[in-house]
Description:
Blueprint: E1 4-8, H1 15-21, E2 24-26, E3 29-31, E4 36-38, H2 44-53, E5 59-61, H3 65-77, E6 82-86, H4 94-108, E7 114-118, H5 123-138, H6 143-155, E8 157-162, H7 167-172, E9 189-195, E10 198-205, H8 208-226, E11 228-235, H9 239-253, E12 259-261, H10 264-270, E13 275-281
Parallel strand pairs: 1-2, 1-6, 6-7, 11-12
Antiparallel strand pairs: 3-4, 3-5, 8-9, 8-13, 9-10, 11-13
Helix pairs in contact: 3-4, 5-6
Amino acid sequence: MTVQIITDSTSYLPQDLREEYGIKVVSLSVTFETESFREEALDNDTFYRKMAESSRIPTSSQPSLQELYEAFVAPIREGRPVIGVFLSAELSGTYNSALLVRDQLLEQYPEAQVEMIDSRTAAMEMGLAVLAAAKAAKAGELFVAVIERVKRVLERSRLIFAPEVLEYLRKGGRIGGASALLGSLLQIKPILTVIEGKAAVLEKVRTKGRAMETMIKILLEDVRTKGLGDVVVHHINNEIEALHIADILKEALQVVVPICPIGPVIGLHVGPGTVGMAYYTLK
Length: 283
């Protein structure tokens, strides 16, 4: 039976790819002072407008155990192997909840094949691994081979981004190794990445334009030495700069470079204005 791939909403996989490769998505949620929304049910324009109007940064929460259970039990009942790939456990309790669900399912269905993977990252760095796994599953690869495909892509992947400010990361407690920058932000535009599941400083430059140039340079050097697996450009309510980066990469790489907006859960922790890219290499 074809392996079922399940991920969470912070992968930000486009809907057409989910449908084409049968990827199932469980949703995290965001909460304003008096309202809560499932991320999957809230469009980005509405969310970022509401966040701009709010006096407080909203909070996020993981999927319920029940939603996770229902997502996994359906394919298991069909006799299908299931692989879940989730947001870094350093950023959310989603992965640990998925482990609890796995244990429950294996008690009920001892012969089931279930694997939960902590991506140790977020957004389309995770999404590209999920997509690669789903393509392998659709091509008929077996359970163990699909698991290895996920891990191989994650090992060769990178998420780099330039936030407009670090205030959102600081308030959300997700700043990780970038905390050393907080006292000297006035003259710095940091380029961040994700290391061991948390934000960390990759480079420090003086302007946003220089940050975009440096991110592109880093990616192109990685591709020159290791080859390109796949790439997307990310943005948080900043499509104009994302289009500019995608055009440069398209010309340099001679491939179509999709633009993938980041939604509410990651957006509230990183902040509007952010641009970046997720990619993986062939070696």
